[in-house]
C-alpha cells in the first residue's frame, strides 16, 4: 500500500467515524436539521475519499497525481449538478478532502 493509499484509508475511516458520531445511530434520512449539515459534510468527505481509494486500487503504480486530478475534476464538475445547501455541503466537503491530499 502506498503512502497516499494509507493516508486516504485513515482519513476515510476518520470521516466515517465522525459521520456515525454525528448521526448517533439515526438513519441519514431521519436526522434532524441540527445534525443534517455536519452529517452531509462527513458523508461528502467519506465519499470523495472512498472514490480515491477505489481509483488507487485500479491505478498503475506512480499514477497517484493523475488519480487525484481526475477525482477532483469529477467532484468539481458535480458541484453545480444539483442545488440546495445539503448538496453544496456534501460536495464542498469532498473537494476539501481531495485538496488536503494534494498539499
Q: In a nutshell, what does this entry contain?
A:
This protein has 4 helices and no strands.
Structure overview:
There is one protein chain. The chain has helices at 3-23, 33-58, 64-78, 85-101. With 103 residues, it is mainly α. The chain has one domain. The longest helix is centred in the middle third of the chain and has 26 residues, at 33-58.
Keywords:
103 residues, mainly alpha, 4 helices, 77% helix, globular
Return the structural class: mainly alpha
Distance between the termini: 20 Å
Largest sheet: none
User: How many structural units, i.e. domains?
Assistant: 1
Question: What percent strand?
Answer: under 5%
Number of strands: 0
Rg measurement, Å: 14 Å
Mean pLDDT: 94
Helix-strand layout with pairing:
Elements: H1 3-23, H2 33-58, H3 64-78, H4 85-101
Amino acid at each position: 500500500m502506498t503512502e497516499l493509499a494509507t493516508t486516504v484509508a485513515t482519513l476515510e475511516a476518520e470521516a466515517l467515524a465522525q459521520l456515525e458520531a454525528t448521526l448517533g445511530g439515526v438513519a441519514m434520512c431521519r436526522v434532524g436539521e441540527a445534525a443534517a449539515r455536519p452529517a452531509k459534510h462527513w458523508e461528502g468527505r467519506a465519499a470523495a475519499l472512498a472514490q480515491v481509494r477505489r481509483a488507487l486500487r485500479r491505478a498503475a503504480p506512480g499514477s497517484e497525481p493523475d488519480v487525484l486530478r481526475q477525482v477532483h475534476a469529477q467532484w468539481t464538475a458535480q458541484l453545480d449538478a444539483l442545488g440546495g445547501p445539503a448538496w453544496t455541503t456534501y460536495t464542498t466537503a469532498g473537494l476539501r478532502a481531495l485538496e488536503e491530499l494534494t498539499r
